[in-house]
Amino acid sequence: MRQRALGAFGVAVFACGCLVLVWTTVMAFCRGEWWRPTESPPVDTYDLIMDVSAFPDGWEVWHGPAPIPERERGERESLYVAFHYKGLDPTMVGAHHKVYRYRDEGKAAWMYSAFSEEEFLPWHTTTPWAIPDGWSYESRVADYFKFACVEEVFVTPYWTCTALSQYGQYISVFATDLSPEYMTLEDIERILLALDERMAFYLKIDTE
């Protein structure tokens, strides 16, 4: 009798184990984790980083392209490049471009909202973030696009502008100081147009 009881107990344990395995498999399938292939990026992220060719004369690369040291925003990969005007301290007139690659388009869309709050915070500003007068450029390539400028104070007041965009699973952040001598709104528009063209080409985005 005891052997039968132990045998029945063993069968019950085995059955419970099978049920747990089946349940775990079903849940993994529903979450899209069943036999998920090893992810490989559709393009080389370095191809999406801006180069200096779209900048006005006199600008050069100051640092990068290089990986962003700390991954604090849940991205799979991130790169940045910094620019400055030749002969000037990079802290006086500078620009940078960052690209973040996320797991998929849904994750990138969710992170776009977080970026939108973080990049346009009113810290050390004398004016609210706003679209400047005369600005009309809107991206026809990005899924989401936001552009605004603000006057900040660091020793002396200066103007800076930021363009935030989502292209599929990628988030792009382009920021630059505004200067009548070195970087005008017309210059920024040409840079953003070149960025859209780059993204459309490498990500094969239909612009029609």
Secondary structure topology:
Layout: H1 2-30, E1 59-67, E2 77-85, E3 94-101, H2 105-119, E4 144-154, E5 156-167, E6 170-178, H3 185-202
Antiparallel strand pairs: 1-2, 2-3, 3-6, 4-5, 5-6
Task: Describe what is shown at a glance.
The protein is an alpha+beta fold. It has helices at 2-30, 105-119, 185-202, and strands at residues 59-67, 77-85, 94-101, 144-154, 156-167, 170-178.
What does the model show?
The chain has about 210 residues and is of the alpha+beta class. The chain folds into 2 domains: about 1-35; about 45-200, Protein Transport Mog1p, Chain A (3-Layer(aba) Sandwich). The chain is about 30% helix and about 30% strand. It contains 3 helices and 6 strands; from the N terminus they run αβββαβββα. It has helices at about 1-30, 105-120, 185-200, and strands at about 60-65, 75-85, 95-100, 145-155, 155-165, 170-180. Strands 1-2-3-6-5-4 form a 6-stranded antiparallel sheet. The longest helix has 29 residues, at about 1-30. The N and C termini lie far apart (about 80 Å). The relative contact order is 0.14. Residues about 1-40 have low confidence and may be disordered.
Number of helices: 3
CATH topology of the largest domain: Protein Transport Mog1p, Chain A
How much is the radius of gyration in Å?
25 Å
Percent helix, as a range, is 25-40%
Mind telling me the CATH class of the largest domain?
Answer: Alpha Beta
- Ends distance: 78 Å
Q: Beta fraction of the residues?
A: 25-35%
Strand order of the largest sheet: 1-2-3-6-5-4
Largest sheet: 6 strands, antiparallel
The assigned CATH architecture of the largest domain is: 3-Layer(aba) Sandwich
